[in-house]
TrEMBL record:
Originating organism: Thiopseudomonas acetoxidans
Pfam families for the chain: Phos_pyr_kin
Keywords (A to Z) from UniProt: Kinase, Transferase
Residues of the Pyridoxamine kinase/Phosphomethylpyrimidine kinase domain: 17-253
Annotated EC: 2.7.1.49
Pathway recorded for this protein: Cofactor biosynthesis; thiamine diphosphate biosynthesis
Protein name: hydroxymethylpyrimidine kinase
InterPro entries to which the protein is assigned, alphabetical: HMP/HMP-P_kinase_dom (IPR004399), PM/HMP-P_kinase-1 (IPR013749), Ribokinase-like (IPR029056)
Length: 261
């Protein structure tokens, strides 16, 4: 009996969100929607709901490495998606995992703060991300507040933040939706020096897990072999549809509907 062909596998290092809007569950659902298989290694546990984050705990280095080693010793992965890391120590653990499987594209969603405002990073995690991990990533996908934190420019524009961050990373997608604008302005900066503006209709409401959804969908498109510019368009369009069809299960933000009914 021959083995059937399998979907591309994406190794995900992300936190666990007990409400299911962001984190590992978002990774799994978004990757399924791209016809990929998620292989998750949980980096942190959080206490959060649809309103905000109240606490988090980063897991032990040895557990993360053991999870990743178990995955990589058994299957071949086509991409790595990084979500919440939570501490400088976990950033360095993620780098250690990345070195286990070199030449695999890494999609980094620099999760530093929840949509509700609660912190998802301790100490100088943003600095460590920028200086040590971003240079190893294929693409980094911050929203504008995260880009401002990473660039240490509290009131910086997309271009001002990009000028700083592109000294550290190859490709950068800064997503919109966190300001008063009537449209979503997403700006992609590629290592060839080109800049691409991708404008979408802005939807009403606030959403929990949109960044995780986007980065995971992008990882899936890249794992499927799509070129970066096309993959960004595909992932943004998919994410917009999940927000258009989002649900409101709790007292706070909407949760993207990543899988069809």
């Amino acid at each position: 009996m021959t083995n059937p062909s399998f979907r591309p596998i994406v190794l995900c290092l992300s936190g666990h969100d007990p409400i299911g809007g962001a984190g590992i569950q978002a990774d799994i659902e978004a990757l399924l929607a791209q016809n990929c298989h998620a292989a998750p290694a949980i980096t942190a546990l959080t206490i959060q709901d649809t309103v905000n984050v109240s606490d988090f705990r980063v897991l032990d280095h040895d557990w993360i490495v053991a999870q990743a080693r178990a995955i990589l010793s058994d299957v071949s992965v086509s991409a790595i998606k990084l979500g919440m890391l939570g501490s400088s120590e976990m950033v360095r653990t993620a780098i250690e995992v990345m070195h286990m499987t070199p030449n695999i594209p890494v999609i980094c969603d620099p999760v530093l703060r929840a949509e509700g405002g609660g912190s998802l990073g301790a100490g100088d995690v943003g600095f460590t991300l920028r200086e040590e991990l971003l240079p190893l990533a294929h693409i980094v996908t911050p929203n504008l507040p995260e880009a401002q934190m990473l660039a240490e420019l509290p009131y910086g524009t997309e271009d001002e933040c990009a000028e700083v961050l592109l000294r550290h990373c190859k490709n950068l997608l800064i997503t919109g939706g966190h300001g008063p604008e009537n449209e979503l302005h997403n700006r992609l900066y590629l290592e060839d020096g080109s800049r691409h503006d991708i404008i979408q209709q802005r939807l009403p409401g606030k959403y929990h897990g949109s960044g995780c959804t986007l980065a995971s969908a992008l990882a899936g498109r890249i794992a499927q072999g799509e070129n970066l510019l096309s993959a960004v368009h595909s992932a943004l369009n998919y994410t917009w549809r999940t927000l258009r069809d989002a649900e409101a299960p709790g007292k706070g933000q909407y949760i993207p509907r990543r899988l069809p009914l």
